Amino acid sequence: MSKLRLSLGCWNYDRTRALMDGSVQPDGIDLNYLNMPVEETFFRMLRHREFEVAEMSLSSYTVSLFKPDRPFIAIPVFPSRFFRHSCIYVNAASGIREPKDLIGKRIGNPEYQMTAPVWIRGILSDRYGIPADSVTYVTGGEEQPGRSEKLKLDLPPNIRVERIGPTQTLTQMLRTGEIDALYTARMPSSFRDGDGKVVRLFPDYVDVEKQYYRETGLFPIMHTVAIRRDVYEANRWVAQALFKAFQEAQARTYEDLRETAALKGMLPWFNAHVEEAVAEMGEDFWPYGFARNRECLATFLRYHHEQGLSKRLLEPEALFAPETMESFVI
To answer: What is the predicted pLDDT for the residue at 119?
Structure first.
């Protein structure tokens, strides 16, 4: 019996590698795993819908739900999660020493609707009293000029967003002080160069992020997995088949992390990092599925709405294929 041929655009994660190498195969699906950088995957799926299934920015996916054709439907799989306190970079000469100093400043974001800046803006608003509309946002390419929003946005007038010039980059503007700070997913080269002109807002970010988790229980979700809606509507069973396969691939990674005979990752204290994560967050510290992630998703959706990206506040239940909202039990 022939299987349904589907292409999956997704980066090379340890938690998805069993799908990439074929050792885990979704029921009834011949999966063609296309290993690509996340920015390329997002661009090609959002602009051209090239794949049947793709890793997708949680923010971009949420924006897409307000399009007339609602082109995608997601499953509660989260290949990327990230505490983002480490991702706020400031020009050392800007006078920004603590979060409240950001108010009134010019802040770079590669795209206003990027998931990482949505979380950063939300955390800064909730925990440090920095309203999303208290700064001016400056968007464009971080390391190369010419980046634009992947999806057309219709923002309220209180959100001020400016585009940089066709030859400018946010990294260089941060170094020279043309912008005061940068919220981004990727470490800018002007910080990595190490000349001290660009610094982190939270240099002790690990401790700050641990405290954030202890107080909120939130491990921010960055990406989900989206199925093209036409594929889903023609084959409703693929949502559950893919969900199960992603879960199995992740379970194998958890087993690898528990291996102590030899280091599976190239970190000298790899096992200590694993033990620390379990002590802080429990055995299933990277949960898939809806129930355990509802509060995290609700927080993100509130941020998305408050920042003018969602025309109405969505409930988390609106995000995912109904077949994946509960587990089969015997």
So the answer is: 98
Query: Which residues fall within 8 angstroms of residue 60, CB to CB, at 6 or more apart?
Result: 42, 46, 113, 115, 150, 151
CATH number at residue 291: 3.40.190.10
Closest CA to 225 of 67, 48, 85, 33: 33
104-159 pLDDT tens trace = 999 999 999 999 999 999 999 999 999 999 999 999 999 999 999 988 899 999 99
Closest CA to 243 of 302, 322, 137: 322
**Pair 92, 212 in one domain:** yes
Burial category of 13 from C-beta neighbours within 10 Å (exposed 0-12, middle 13-18, buried 19 and up): middle
Domain with 156 in it: 85-216
Spatial distance between the Cα atoms of 231 and 69, rounded to a whole number of angstroms = 14
Nearest to 298 by CA among 111, 125, 62: 62
Residues of the chain with pLDDT under 50: none
pLDDT digits (tens, 9 = 90+) for 179-194: 999 999 999 999 999 9
Q: Which amino acid is at 259?
A: E
- Please give the radius of gyration of the chain, using alpha carbons only, rounded to the nearest integer: 20
Query: Residues in the chain, how many?
Result: 330
Helices (H), 102-159: 115-128
Residue 329 belongs to a domain? no
Domain identity same for 73 and 92 = no
